[in-house]
Structures are given as C-alpha cells and as structure tokens.
C-alpha cells in the first residue's frame, strides 16, 4: 500500500511540476531569498555590459524607432526578484539614451521610457518593486505570464532583455516519465550522464520553447527592435558532465538515491523528478533562430561567466545561491525536510570535490546573443 501511495503521489507531483516547470525562486527579502542570494547571476550578467553597449550603439536605429512612437519600451523577460533586473534595465536605458544623443543630436527631447518586468504569475513582484529607485526617470509595469507566450501588445516593444531565463524549459518532456520510453530517466534527475535519448528529449523541448519565445517576441516587437540574450550554454559537442552545473546535478541525483536507501523518500519520487534545465549549445541556438526566421543574429558568442573567480569556491555560499534559485521545483515534489537534507548533503559532497569543480570553470559556458527583428 505504501508503495502505491508513493507512486501515485510522485506522479501527481511530477505532473504539477511539468505543467509549471520553470524557475520558482524564493520571494521576499529574507536570508534565503533569491533577492539576497543572486550576486553570482549579477556578476555573470555584468560580464557582457560593454558588449551590449557596443551592439546597441552599432545596430539599434533609434531615429527610425522614435519616428513611429514617442514611447520607447524595454522589457525584461524572466526578471525574477531583487535588484539584478532593476540594475540591468537601468544600464540598458543609459545605453539607449547615449545612442539617442549620438544619433539624434538635434532632437529637442528624449522619448518617454517604459520598463516592463515579466515573469511567472508566482513571481514576487511586490518585493521586486521595493528595489526601484525613488528618482527613476522611467515608467514601470509588471506583466505576469510565461514568456513562451505573447504577453505584450503587437508591435509595442523596442528592446527586450532575457538573462539566465531561457534555460528553464516550459515543461518536462513526457518521455522522461514513461517507463516504456528509451528516454525514461530512472534514477537520475537531469540529462547529465544520462542516455542520449534523454538528452535528445531535452534538446527537442528546448527547440520548441525557443521557437515559441521568438514567435511571441516577434509579434510584440517592432521592426528593427532588438533582443539581448544572456544565459547558460556549453560548447558544441562538450558533455555536460564536464561542467560545474552538470557535476552538481549528478551529485544531487546521487544524494537523492542515498536518501531512498535511508527511507527519507521513495525511489518512485526520484524516478518521477527531473530538472527542467537545458544549456543550449550555440549551434543549436543558431539553428533555432534561423528556423524561426523572424530575427537576424547580429552577435553571438560564448564567454566565461565567471572571469572574476580566481580562488577556491565558497561552497556553502554557492549552494545557498543554487537553493534560492531552484528550491521551488523541489518544493513541488519533495517534503521540506527532505529538501533540507538534500542541500545539507550537497554542501558536504561538493566540498569533497571542490578542486574538481574549480578545474571545470572555463570559457564558453555563457551565451551572449543579440537578435534583431526583421
């Protein structure tokens, strides 16, 4: 009877997770909140600030865009909670203002600027808005909803920003939960070190999600508008088991299977759980953009997401950041006591292999792309 209940509960929880499998970060501004544990993400985003400025100064025709509207709209898709998105949007606006001054030196005034923050309905927008500066020189709106769908009016958007969000799948591939499928991911929680059929299922879902994302932005964006994309990636052909996140996901899976042996959770719970995260290689990204056809690729390159990292990794701090960003997915599937046990053991396990982790930080794990609406 206990096994049947566990199987049923695992299926129910995984169905719930697959329907809303994107990131659900810890809201508020408490000790464990995402807003107070996302400095790594901000540092990674800062790496590309100068490149974003160069791309906008070269490719964004603000004179033409301003001829059709006196409002310039910027949107951050997958904004999350905290100051990161606020800072990124202010950086973008400063660059756009610089481009206006450069391209339209005789213009009597700047357009009105509106910043739109988008994320899932569960996002803590109330906490987000507490980080807005009192002296902001732009209008603000929040638009909840999946960015895989259209969330803004047609032809209303001029500049889009998406940082460390596209790697979250809209849903888990059904094959991962089908015991009859070659992609059934038994005993694992990710495609890292999994059979090739599992990797293919993830890649296929990401390709579908990318097309949905681009099609939605294509409807929302004016001709000549641009999308700035920053996010997780990996060189074409490199196994994910050779990068830090891949090693960490394998450790998570191993810890969960150890917890099965101690009775903390059931094996069915683990078999039914998969992380909805995919690091798209640049080759697949280029193919997806070209297949969609609505955008041209102005810039694309792989970068080192952590050039500042020179010494040992502070494992407890690293895991705290990971937990703040990912705990929502685990909470949909496992009891809180089991989640505490998982992350406590993760600190210990990663500490034992810290030198291996440090050796895996390398160039080519952060995608930077600039797309322009045709």
TrEMBL record:
Signal peptide coordinates: none
Region described as Disordered: 1-31
Extent of Basic and acidic residues compositional bias: 9-18
Database matches in Pfam families: Methyltransf_7
Single GO MF descriptor: methyltransferase activity
InterPro entries according to UniProt: MeTrfase_7, MeTrfase_capping, SAM-dependent_MTases_sf
Keyword vocabulary terms for this entry: Magnesium, Metal-binding, Methyltransferase, Transferase
GO BP, sorted A to Z: methylation
Protein name: S-adenosylmethionine-dependent methyltransferase
Organism: Gossypium schwendimanii
């Amino acid at each position: 009877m206990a096994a049947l209940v566990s199987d049923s509960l695992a299926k129910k929880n995984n169905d719930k997770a697959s329907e809303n499998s994107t990131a659900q970060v810890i809201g508020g501004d408490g000790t464990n909140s995402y807003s107070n544990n996302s400095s790594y993400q901000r540092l990674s985003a800062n790496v590309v600030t100068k490149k974003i400025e160069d791309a906008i100064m070269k490719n964004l025709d603000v004179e033409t865009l301003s001829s059709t509207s006196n409002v310039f709209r910027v949107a951050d898709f997958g904004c999350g909670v905290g100051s990161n998105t606020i800072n990124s949007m202010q950086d973008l606006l400063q660059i756009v203002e610089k481009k206006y001054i450069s391209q339209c030196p005789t213009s009597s005034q700047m357009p009105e600027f509106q910043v739109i923050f988008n994320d899932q309905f569960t996002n803590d927008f109330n906490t987000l808005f507490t980080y807005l500066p009192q002296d902001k020189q732009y209008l603000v709106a929040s638009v909840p909803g999946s960015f895989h769908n259209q969330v803004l009016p047609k032809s209303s958007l001029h500049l889009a920003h998406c940082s460390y969000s596209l790697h979250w799948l809209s849903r888990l591939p059904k094959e991962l939960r089908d015991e009859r499928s070659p992609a059934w991911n038994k005993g694992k929680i990710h495609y890292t070190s999994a059979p090739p059929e599992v990797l293919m299922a993830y890649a296929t879902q990401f390709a579908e999600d990318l097309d949905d994302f681009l099609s939605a932005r294509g409807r929302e964006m004016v001709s000549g508008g641009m999308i700035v994309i920053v996010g997780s990636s990996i060189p074409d052909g490199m196994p994910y088991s050779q990068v830090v996140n891949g090693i960490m996901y394998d450790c998570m899976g191993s810890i969960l299977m150890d917890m099965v042996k101690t009775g903390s959770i059931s094996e069915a719970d683990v078999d039914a759980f998969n992380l909805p995260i995919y690091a798209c290689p640049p080759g697949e990204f280029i193919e997806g953009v070209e297949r969609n056809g609505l955008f041209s690729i102005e810039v694309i390159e792989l970068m080192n997401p952590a050039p500042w990292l020179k010494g040992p990794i502070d494992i407890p701090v690293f895991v705290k950041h990971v937990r703040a960003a990912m705990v929502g997915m685990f909470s949909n599937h496992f009891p809180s006591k089991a989640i505490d046990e998982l992350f406590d053991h993760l600190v210990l396990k990663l500490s034992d292999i810290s030198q291996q982790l440090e050796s895996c930080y390398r160039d080519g794990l952060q995608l930077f792309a600039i797309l322009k609406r045709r």
